[in-house]
Design goal:
Pfam families: Pkinase. This protein is an alpha+beta fold and about 350 residues long. It contains eleven helices and twelve strands. It folds into two domains: about 1-100, 2-Layer Sandwich (Phosphorylase Kinase, domain 1); about 100-300, Transferase(Phosphotransferase) domain 1 (Transferase(Phosphotransferase), domain 1), CATH 1.10.510.10. The protein has a five-stranded antiparallel beta sheet with strand order 3-4-5-7-6. Helix 1 packs parallel to helix 11 (about 325-355), helix 3 (about 115-135) packs antiparallel against helix 5 (about 195-210) and helix 5 (about 195-210) packs antiparallel against helix 9.
Amino acid sequence: MVQFTHVNVFGTCFEVTTRYHHLLPLKIEASSLRCSAIDELICSQVTVKKITKPFRNSELSQKAYLELKLLKHLKHENIAALRDVFMSPEDNIYLITEHQDASLEQLILSQPLGETHYTKVFLYQILRGLKYIHSANVVHCNLKPSNILIGHNCDLRITDFDHARIQGTKVTEPFSEIQCFRTPELLLGECTYEFAIDMWSVGYIFARMINRELFSLEDWKVNSLHAIGYPPRSMMSGIDDANISENLEPLLNTRCKPLRCYINTTDLEAMGLAEHLLAFDPKARYQANQALLHKYVSFYHDPDDEPVSEQRWSVSDTDYVNLPVDTWKTLILSEILDHHNKQLSSEVSSKYVMVEMK
């Protein structure tokens, strides 16, 4: 029987199996907390993410289920790999992923990346990972520097799929609760999650790498409109939220500064790519595969080494939020068991190969 140990991290109790020790806090959010730990089984550092009380309601259960399913199936060099998963006796879920040394947010705050080759290397890897994610018909919906992890050799991993949606899923959250950067189309009442949302986030991340003091996340929700322009009055009628409409109305007569006034770069290729990523019209915004063809990252672009997903998800795969919480729990436990069985099978196969080689 699996044994658990309790570790207090910043006032939060982590119930982890005994193979994990030396837990140290990495990131704290409302519904989850992330720590580093030592995995005794593989003698290596890992990241432990606690999903707190996912069975409080059906919606939270569905989010936990989708995140687990995605981490199990999205296998790519630029996505944090799932190493282990378990449910504690207190019904909290723990996702164990490979560990990286720092987040992109930490790097940006510690030293400006500016127009260095690191900016190109990191941007290319983000786009490479997104090409794979989008090919699976998945929208990450929460891309930001703190959800992008960097290793000591500059390898980049996209993490935290807790707000991910299948492309085409209806937007049901109130505007104020949407976790991703507020894109113009969401501001104007877009009713489905589309890939363009992630590309807008990439544009913000790119601008932050070039110009560390661009805007804070909160400021960007409003100030981004100063940089890209405002919707014509004919589009204002599509805004359902009265508060948003009221805040936008006085801005319509404001003269917008060009984007180059907000991004401090003399690199015309960088500015050109930023303008394509931050296009007001989502249909004009670059997709990941288009951005990978841009001259700014062309040195790293290799179409033979930019894989796509073999599985393509559809809305119908996850469109059953009304299931009872107990059913969700059974489904999640089944996914956990499936993961462990596949791990065991892989370990047995590896040992068999080693014996055969001897």
